[in-house]
Write a structure and sequence with these properties.
The protein is built from 4 helices and no strands. It is mainly alpha-helical and 127 residues long.
């Protein structure tokens, strides 16, 4: 489960890096860059947790879908990724018994909820 979460984080990082590089609206680009850095920290936490359990961190990702070419399309894709992340963390928090890991995933999930609200807010602003 932690490795599945890790892969989702890597997918988000790569998607957001492409988006912040191509989006010309400064505020949206900078905000997307900030969020990609949060996801990088999530990768660090999850990879360390996998290693602590004696596993090997999955540095891998699903085929990338960057959304369409407009800023709206990209933000819609970002919203979709964050919604998926929140849902997956919710399921994993329920499924995992270890309290320390539950706490870690809960902390990450709350940051994903913040990201979701930021991306949704930016999408609303420009729509
Ligand atoms: Fe994340
Ligand atoms: Fe996120």
């Amino acid at each position: 489960m932690l490795n599945e979460d890790l892969k989702g984080e890597i997918e988000a990082i790569l998607t957001y890096v492409k988006h912040f590089a191509v989006i010309k609206e400064c505020k949206i680009s900078r905000e997307t860059e900030e969020i990609s850095l949060d996801e990088m920290r999530h990768v660090e936490w999850l990879a360390s947790a996998v290693v602590d359990l004696g596993g090997e961190p999955a540095i891998d990702h699903m085929p990338l879908n960057f959304g369409g070419n407009t800023v709206q399309d990209m933000l819609r894709r970002d919203v979709e990724l964050e919604k998926g992340a929140v849902k997956q963390y919710e399921e994993h928090i329920v499924a995992i018994d270890d309290l320390k890991l539950k706490k870690l995933l809960t902390k990450i999930k709350s940051e994903e909820e913040e990201h979701l609200s930021k991306f949704s807010g930016m999408l609303e602003e420009i729509s």
